[in-house]
Specification:
476 residues; alpha/beta; N-(1-d-carboxylethyl)-l-norvaline Dehydrogenase, domain 2; five-stranded parallel beta sheet; three-stranded mixed beta sheet; 20 helices; 48% helix; globular; binds D-mannonic acid
Amino acid sequence: MEAGLPDRLHHTPSTAPSGIVHLGLGAFFRAHGAIFVAEAMAASGGEWGITGVSLQSPGTRDKLRPQGWAYTALELGPDGETEQVVTVLRDVLVAPEDPQAVLDAMAAPSVRIVSLTVTEKGYCHEPSTGRLNAGHPDIVHDLAGPLPKSAPGFLVRALQARHAAGIAPFTVLCCDNLPENGKVVRGVVLDLARLIDPDLATWIGAEGAFPSTMVDRIVPATTAADLDRLEALTGARDAAPVMHEPFRQWVVEDHFVGGERPDLGAVGVQLVDDVTPFEHMKLRMLNGTHSSLAYLGYLAGHETIAEVAADPVFAQFVDRLWKTEIIPALTPPPGEDLGAYADALAARYANPSIRHRTWQIAMDGSQKLPQRILGTIAEGRAAGRAVPGLTLAVAAWMRYASGTGLDGAAIEVKDPMAADLATLWRDDPAETVAGFLRLATVFPAALREDAGFAADLTAALTALQDKGARGAVADV
Ligand code: CS2
C-alpha cells in the first residue's frame, strides 16, 4: 500500500461556488461528464465545480459525504486497471429531503449550467412523440405547488426563480441517451412552463439554451466485489467508486447561454453545430445492439455482455445487425467511419474486465426501444430492407417483459410500464403481438399499422419459443 492513499478519500472540498448543478448523480455522470469537467478545469481553469443532486434517495450523498465528495473512478481495461480520484464535486443534495435547497442551488448566479442524467423516463415525456406527459403523476404534483419532484419541474421552477431575480437562465445540458436530447428537454420544459406561466415560457424560449449532446462510456453498476477489489488495489475503502471502460466520447452542440462553459474542447470533447448524426450512430449502433443483446442474451442464459460477445453465434448476429440492418439506415457523422465504429464496438463489448449485466441494460425497455431499435426497423421496412435481427430483438423484449423466461423462470422486470406489459402475454403469439402493437407510447404509427411487421414479429416470437433464444439467433 502506498503511504497516504487513504487520505485522498478524505478530501477537503473547495468552498468556491459551483458553476454546474447536475441532476441525477448516478455512476454514469460520475464516470463521464464529471471527469471531463474536472479535466477541463485542470487544463484551462474556470469555476466549474459541481453540485450533484440525487432526485430519489440519499445513498450516494451519505456515502460520499465522509469522503469530502471525492470518489475513485476505476478504469477497467482489457489488460489492467487504472484508478484516479475525482474531486470535482462540491456538494451533494437530496431533492426529496429539501427541494427548496435544490432550487436555491440552481438559482445561484454562479451556476451557469444545469446538466442532467435522469434516465429516459426522468423527462416525463411520451417516448413516441417527445412531448410532455401532462398526466404523469410527478408533473401533476409539480403543477400543484412550487416544490417539485420531477426533473422538468426543478428546471422550470429554478428558471422561474432566476427570471424573478433578473438572473440569466442557465444552459440545460441533457446527457441522457435520447435522440435530439436538447430538443426533447427544451420541449418538456416549455410545455411545463406554459402551464405555469406563459411569460416565463416565452423568456425561457428566447433566452435559454438546450444544446443536444451525445454521451458514451460503458459504466456497469458497481458491485460489492468491486469495492473489495479496489480496496485491495489502493489500500483505501471507497464507499462509492465508479467502474468504467477506457473509451469515452462526448459530442456537444456549442450553444451555451453567454457562451459560458468549461473548456471542454481542450480535453477531447467534440464541439459541433449539429449532434444529430452522432446521436443516431451511437443510439442505434451501440444502444440498439446493447438492448438486442441484453434481451436475447438474457433469455439465452448469458449474464453479461462480455459473455454474450464471447458466444460466436451472438458475435456473428451482432455483426450482421450492424452491417445489414443498422448501418444502411445511417448517414455517417463527419469524421466517422461506421464500419470501423462497429469493429470498435465489438472490441468494447468483448472487454472481459467489464461485467455489464444483461439484466441492467434490459431495464426500462419501454422507454429505450423507440430510439434504439424501432426507428431503424421502421426506416428499414419503409425502404424495403429486411430487418429480421432487430425484429427478433423486439420479440425477445416482449418475452422478457412477460416476466417469465423461456426456461419458465421468473424475471425481475424493471420498467415504468412493467405492470401493463405483464398483462399482454397470451398463449397465441399473434395475440401477444397484437396486444403489444397497441402500445402507442412505444411503437410509432408506421409499425402499429404495418401488418407485415406484425406477421414478422409473430414468426420471431414463435421461433424464440420453438428454438430457444440462441437457436433463433443462429437462424436469423
Ligand atoms: C446501456 C447504456 O444500460 C443501458 O441501457 O445501453 O447505459 C450504455 O452502456 C451507454 O449508453 C454507453 O454509452
